[in-house]
Each structure stands twice: as C-alpha cells, then as structure tokens.
Amino acid sequence: MTIQQLLKTAPVTTLLLISFIGLFLLQVLTGVDANNPSTEDLLKWGANALPFTMTDDPWRLLSSAFLHIGLMHLLFNGFAMYFFGQVAEPMFGSAKFLALFLLAAIGGNLLNNYITWQGILDGTGQPGISAGASGGIMGIGAALLIAALFKISVNGLVLNLKSLIFIMGINLVYGFAVPGIDNAGHIGGAVTGLVIALAFAIAYRQRANVTQINPPFDASLHIHPTYQQHTGYNNYHNNHNSHHPADSNKAKNPAILWQLLPWIVMLVMSVGFAYWWQDMHQQLLQVLAAIE
C-alpha cells in the first residue's frame, strides 16, 4: 500500500507514523544519538518517568507514546502501527481509532507507573524510564482480536483470529524474554484496548440486530432484496403498508444509543485514568513530604 493509499484509507494511521518519524528526525538533528539516546535526552523529549509523570508532568503519559528509544525501536513500532492501523482504522472509524490508541497508551503508562511505584514502596524496585507507541499499538492489536472474535468485517473481510493471537503472543513473549522491555505498558495497553473493543463489538452486534428487525425502507416501501432472500419474509411488503414515522423513530433510538456506547465507555475510562493518576500523585506527594 502506497503512502497516498494509506492516507486515503487510514489518515490517522498515516499522521501517527509521520509524527513518530518526524519527532525522531528532529531529535537526531538536534544532536540526540539515533541508536542509544541518553536518559537526559529522553526526559527532555517527553519520556515517561515516575517522579516526573506522577507529579508535575502528567502530559508525559501521552508524549512518551510518540517518542522512541533508538532507530530499531522506531522501525519495530512503525511497522506494527502500519500493519494494524490500515485494518483497524477503517473498521472503527478514524476518530474512535485515535481515541483508542491514545487511551491504550495512557493505560499502559499508568500501569507501568503503578507497578514501579508499588515496587518502590515494597523496596524491590526503583524509578525507570519508558517511551514508545507499544502500549497504544498493543491496544489496537487487542481490539482487532475482539473484532475477529465477534467476526466484525472490513470491506467484507473477516480477520483471522489465530493469526492475530499469534502476533500478539509473539509481542508479549518477546517482551518478557528481552530485558528492558516495558511489559507493564504492553499489558496495560492491551487490557485497555480489550475493554474499549468490547464496547465496539457489543454496539456492532446490537446495531446489526436492530437493522435485521427493522430493515430500512425506500420510497416505495420495498424491502431490500438481500434481506428478503435472507429471511424468507416474502409477504413483508404486504403486511407493512401502513408504515408510520413513529415506527422509524423507535428503530433509530436504540441504534443511536448503541452507536454512543463506545464513546461512553471511553469517557468512563478517561475519568478512571484521571482518578488513578490523582491517587498515585497524592501518595507520591505524601511520601516526599514525609522524607523532607
């Protein structure tokens, strides 16, 4: 798929890839090592780090999703975004796809900070630094798993569930096998994506049910041929000559509610994430105050 084709079918995916590459090039042009950036440089460019993210810099929960630690990290995540995005964005819609990516990235970073913080409290851990789009990408991959499970199609094509499980499994195993990988970020992003995708899938199924029960009418009140062949209701037109606007409104109302379900779930998750950050923020301030 060319850049022009990708921009047409998946504009948000294209813009995300451009932002990843553009930020990386900007870092290199300002003197950051392309293969082994320093901790100071990563912090300067917005990496996720517990003492900063959970005190005065909550914006790092998002900025770190666009920042990559070296060229290989960028290439790996860029390929994954290209592979998943060109399928997921047309399926969920550009706006919902972007919200899914951002929330999964935030969820992954929050889980990373939570586990780090608990380790510090237990005396078994220490502050670290993380960056990369992996959490958001794992959220997209998990959402595609749910789509395949519910047999949601894109342009008539249904995703292969086994292939997606294999790809996601490789990512998780690789994360646990290689030191320095942000496993908490991967898992947090994937869980966030699963929850959001369940809302998509349930809404999809319910809208499909409403459409089957209340098929759309044309000006002459003829049922759509494919629906008549599928259901076998050959006398449908004869029994519904007295179609009223009130019937159409009843059919539309449930469809609108189900269409809003994914946005409602994402809004609730956003509020939950804000509360989670605030809770850790207060705990950290209390500990710092006690030390001083």
Main β-sheet, spatial strand arrangement? 1-2
For the termini, the CA-CA separation is 57 Å
Structural class by SSE content: mainly alpha
Approximate shape: globular
3D architecture notes:
- The chain has helices spanning 3-9, 11-29, 39-44, 50-53, 60-63, 71-92, 94-122, 134-149, 161-177, 183-213, 225-231, 236-239, 245-291; strands at 48-49, 129-130, 153-154, 157-158.
- It is mainly alpha-helical and 292 residues long.
- The protein is globular and about 60 Å long.
- The N and C termini lie far apart (57 Å).
Protein topology:
Elements: H1 3-9, H2 11-29, H3 39-44, E1 48-49, H4 50-53, H5 60-63, H6 71-92, H7 94-122, E2 129-130, H8 134-149, E3 153-154, E4 157-158, H9 161-177, H10 183-213, H11 225-231, H12 236-239, H13 245-291
Antiparallel strand pairs: 1-2, 3-4
Write a brief structural summary.
The chain is an all-alpha fold and 292 residues long. It has helices spanning 3-9, 11-29, 39-44, 50-53, 60-63, 71-92, 94-122, 134-149, 161-177, 183-213, 225-231, 236-239, 245-291; strands spanning 48-49, 129-130, 153-154, 157-158.
Observed structural traits:
two-stranded antiparallel ribbon; mainly alpha
